[in-house]
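To: structure subgroup
Subject: Chain for Friday's discussion

All,

I'm putting the inputs and outputs inline so they're searchable in the archive.
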Amino acid sequence: MGSFSLPHLLLLGVVVLILFGGKGKISEIMGDVAKGIKSFKKGLSDDEAAAKPAAADAPRTIEHQAPAAVDASRDANKVG
């Protein structure tokens, strides 16, 4: 129960080879992860930049019409 069998030893050997085998495997893997994160962030910022000009349009009402000008003379006759 406490000993390693052949599949356990093979799996351990594969993990050791991946982590420590060859020249700079860990740095290559981490470099690829960093590139993926940078491209993901760039993609998000590109989406936000594309969405900002559409949102910067003039404010509109629910009916998508410009708001009407307020008539100040109507308010002058109110008592209150």
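Points worth raising on Friday:
The chain is about 65% helix and 0% strand.
The mean pLDDT is 75.

D.
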